Amino acid sequence: MMTATPTVELSIAEPIRRGVTMSIRHAAHLVIVLSLLAAALTSCKHYWGKPGATAEQFNRDSTECAKEASSTSTVGYVRSENIYKGCMRARGWARDQKMDPPGEGWFRGIENWD
Question: Does the model's pTM come out above 0.85?
Answer without folding.
Answer: no
